[in-house]
Specification:
Aspartate Aminotransferase, domain 1, 2 domains, four-stranded mixed beta sheet, 41% helix, 11% strand, binds pyridoxal-5'-phosphate
């Protein structure tokens, strides 16, 4: 008889779950869905328009354009900013691949600059150096710089905006993980020429399906995004340029409208959880076993992500054995993805010349995101922190 493979231990505290939130909001969500059913309007109707107004007010921007998902939001904003064949876009390698995918979908090339270890976002000095290198090496213009506000914490925007201004390159924020985040420079989504948000269900503000949004303070830019969202068309059956169908549906708009009023409280709760983790884990940080994330006031903790310089994967397995989930966002930085390989020049001997981005590589090897969602109880947070302590002290 074969030895049966032991069943994995049950997950007691998942890294993420929507079950409690969806159950608690069931009446509001049902009401929103009923409203759409009764209206008979399923695409480009009053729910989308109302969501755009509410989201623009919440983010402090003039224009918000709802769309199908965060990848489309980036793609739309990049296209409207002029990214396309014969241009390049500068971004961070330490992000979900959609940031880079959206750039490549426009036909533009990707130029990477390394990250600042403390923010996990674009390093301003590396960004300036990459802009200089690009200008010296290539004739292609830079169409945009795309900082990513990873984990709900903002990139170091003041100096990044200064670099962009000096180079006369627009900034498009990838704010997919940062609805409601703030920084001394201002709120996420209100700082560059435009920004892209995702309402993927796991995000701080998540749809019950797919959704995204472009924000901008520039009315002409907004008009172009609206056209691109519907096959390049502002007037029925007249197409000014090539766009595609990137519309949000009314059901998702209604559900997001139902959830938006709760977002500030959810983000506050995420900050509380982060503070509780920080207090519980401080001794491990003092002992040099982990590095805790910075907690600037406007962080919205889409993730609470520690660094474990030594033995991250074993620690993760030991936590799992105690029933505590965790995730690695992201194990392979964008510049090392197989999808990028053929874009790099060949070296003598045939190997590809992969860009040198040591901080992104180091982050990918060290990061671990602990359980984080607003409905976690204090006891659960304490238990997750205790499991990490036990795993590190084993
Ligand atoms: C940083 C970042 N950029 C872009 C995206 C793409 O958003 P979506 O999945 O809605 O297309 C995501 C989320 O998935 C993301 O985390």
């Amino acid at each position: 008889m074969n030895n049966p493979v032991p069943a994995p231990p049950p997950i007691v505290i998942p890294q993420f779950s929507l079950a409690r939130q969806t159950a608690a909001l069931r009446p509001q969500l049902t009401q929103a869905m009923e409203r759409v059913l009764a209206s008979g309007r399923f695409v480009q109707g009053p729910e989308t328009e109302a969501l755009e107004k509410k989201a623009a007010a919440a983010l402090g921007v003039h224009e918000a354009i709802a769309c199908a998902n965060g990848t489309d939001a980036l793609h739309l904003a990049l296209r409207a900013a002029g990214a396309g064949p014969g241009t390049a876009v500068l971004t961070t390698p330490f992000t979900f691949f959609a940031t880079v995918g959206a750039i490549l979908l426009t036909g533009a090339e990707v130029e990477f600059a390394d990250i600042t270890p403390g923010t996990f976002g674009l390093d301003p000095a590396q960004t300036a150096a990459a802009v200089r290198r690009h200008k010296a090496r290539r004739s292609t213009p830079l169409a945009a710089i795309v900082p990513v506000h990873l984990y709900g914490g903002m990139a170091d925007m003041e100096p990044i905006l200064a670099v962009a201004r000096a180079a006369r390159v627009p900034v498009i924020e990838d704010a997919a993980q940062a609805f409601g985040a703030r920084s001394p420079a201002g709120g996420a989504g209100a700082l560059g020429l435009a920004a892209a948000f995702s309402f993927y269900p796991t995000k701080n503000l998540g749809a019950l399906g797919e959704g995204g949004m472009v924000t901008t303070g520039d009315a002409r830019f907004a008009t172009r995004v609206r056209a691109l969202r519907t096959h390049g068309s502002l007037h029925r059956y007249r197409h000014e340029e090539l766009g595609w169908n990137a519309r949000m549906d009314e059901m998702q708009a209604a559900l997001l409208r139902a959830k938006l009023p709760y977002l500030s409280a959810w983000n506050r709760r995420r900050r509380q959880i982060a503070a509780q983790y920080a207090e519980a884990l401080e001794p491990l940080a003092a002992a040099g076993k982990i590095v805790l994330p910075a907690r600037p006031a406007g962080h919205v903790f889409h993730q609470y992500t520690v660094r474990i310089p030594d033995g991250r994967d074993q620690v993760r397995a030991a936590m799992l054995a105690q029933g505590i989930g965790s995730e690695i966002y992201y194990p392979i930085p964008a510049h090392r993805q197989p999808a990028m390989r053929q874009r790099y020049p060949r070296l003598p001997g045939g190997r590809r010349q992969i860009p040198q981005l040591p901080e992104a590589d180091r982050a990918a090897a060290e990061v671990l995101s602990l359980p984080m969602f607003p409905e976690l109880t204090d006891e659960e947070v304490a238990r997750a922190a205790a499991a990490l302590r036990a795993a590190l002290e084993a």
